[in-house]
Amino acid sequence: MKPILRVLALLLVAASAHAHKASDAYLSLTVDGARVSGRWDIALRDLELAVGLDANADGAISWGELREQRAAIDAYALSHLRISASDSPCRARIASHQVDRHTDGAYAVLALDATCASARDIALEYDLLFALDPQHRGLLRTSHGGSASSAVLSPAAPRFALTEPASTWRTLNDFLREGVWHIWIGIDHVLFLLCLLLPAVVRREAGRWRAVESARAAALDVLRVVTAFTLAHSITLALAALDVVALPSRWVESAIAASIVLAALDNLRPFLRAPRWAIAFGFGLVHGLGFASVLIDLGLPAGARTLALVAFNAGVELGQLAIVAAFLPLALALRRSALYPRFALAGGSLAVAALASVWLWERAVGA
């Protein structure tokens, strides 16, 4: 019983830090000859972590506080973004500052301008916040010679050639890896899936949970749930990423939190009359919209939209299968323990319901 409880505890601890969108910065750059220009959006919460902005410690960052730290922000940002041409450093500067809002809060917008000695082999290296937050990603969109490219800059892939078209392999690798990464750090999606999987190794009889005798039957139940969830979120992920469906982010994120609450409470006292695979499909449609918001932020590259979409979705499925592969053997091994229904199923579901209720409140009211 202890291993599965440790897994649940670690997920719940991690969830407190990842209830919202992971740390991302946005780089939109245009290469015109030997000049590189564009904008760089960095979350104020990340700049607070890196350089300290909240001078009066009141929990809010004012425009005045941001202006006071402009030199520190510029120095920090430029020390973590290196643009070069034929391996010779380009002269880069921050021309101006603005503030903009994204779905997850306020961002400083830095107008970036760099002049290179050559227009050949221009590349950038990015390591903003990697030392402080290895989960941080730089989401890069570039324009050069009439063509556009997208890339995800991470500790594993910090360099990008601005004057070379993105290769099919780079696009596939970037979006596949980010699909895996975003399901693993998308604790809300993981907890919803676990709420559906926890009852798979037990059955309800006379108001009590009893162990399922057949491991094969439990595995088939898990397969139905995972397949339904995969099919549903793949549908809405594709529709939203291709701009066929668009809903406000607050609605989607609130609905995702509500789905977790309902799934967790159903484990305590079943009230959702549909089979679990049908519940997974119905709520999976909502979760797909959440995955789509991440993919839209990453930026579907022009000319490779389908490839990026398929790669990202495949990454989500691979990450999801890894979670199931870790969970199912433990649950099967512990299903006959008298403590499983009480602690893993009931206790875990109660903790998830409480946590998701906090998320629902925060997301619904914009806290």
Detailed description of the structure:
A six-stranded mixed β-sheet has the order 5-6-2-1-8-9. A four-stranded antiparallel β-sheet has the order 4-3-7-10. The protein has a two-stranded antiparallel sheet with strand order 11-12. The protein is built from eleven helices and twelve strands. It has two domains: about 1-20 and about 185-365; about 25-165, no CATH class. It has helices spanning about 1-15, 45-50, 65-70, 70-80, 170-185, 185-195, 215-240, 250-270, 275-300, 305-335, 340-365; strands at about 25-30, 35-45, 80-85, 90, 90-100, 105-115, 120-125, 135-145, 145-155, 160, 200-205, 210. It has about 375 residues and is of the alpha+beta class. The longest helix has 30 residues, at about 305-335. Strand 11 and strand 12 form a beta hairpin. The two termini are about 35 Å apart. The chain is elongated and about 75 Å long.
